[in-house]
Amino acid sequence: xxxxxxxxxxxxxxxxxxxxxxxxxxxxxxxxxxxxxxxxxxxxxxxxxxxxxxxxxxxxxxxxxxxxxxxxxxxxxxxxxxxxxxxxxxxxxxxxxxxxxxxxxxxxxxxxxxxxx
Length: 117
Fold this sequence. Notes:
Elements lengths: L2 E11 L8 H20 L3 E6 L8 E7 L3 H9 L2 H4 L3 E11 L14 H5 L1
Antiparallel strand pairs: 1-3, 1-4, 2-3
């Protein structure tokens, strides 16, 4: 059987994250979303989005990338919210039988304001 290889990246809230003002949080979220959009536009990121649940949980987001785990870690470490210490990343190689899943072209919003339009 032939397999397709992807990488799953989990976005996890750091327990030692610094405190941010409401304005800093908003700017950081927009920078985070812009980074995801750049990864998607450059063909690395296939899908990404928040994981919904109680606000005190560690898991905040989930991404699927079409690069190996090492490259995915490098790309996700460039996220402004990760660099600011709010989140940490864990990556996992993911294998699927070839043809089981397909991703279509789409658009990721670059900011909260764009997502709300």
